[in-house]
Amino acid sequence: SATVVSAGSGPGKHHNRRGLHLGGKKAKQPGLYEVRIATPPPRSLGIYALPPNTQCGEQIDVEGASYVVTTVVLQYKLRGGRYVREHNRLEVQPTGRWLVNQMLNNLVQARYVGPTGKQD
């Protein structure tokens, strides 16, 4: 089963909305998502029923492990002159890895405020 844990820019509040693991290869309906780990090597965790408004930055629990949604992919296909939803995918990172990446991004973006010019 899958649980949406929080919404926003990082892990936090619990919402207790549970999802169910479903069989099949394509997640076509709103609320069905293929959950895929984005970090190398990428691998699919399966198709889960989650709230249709699941967004980037939300924390979800899948089979006892905690992940942060990094990308929401909705694929459409043109059929009979109309676009029809073909596949829904959530790309996730383990929460620990996401936190480390956030800290490293903050270090890269930080400005150096040390002495400038010639040193003695």
UniProtKB/TrEMBL annotation:
Residues 1-27 are annotated as: Disordered. Residues 12-27 have a biased composition (Basic residues). This is Uncharacterized protein.
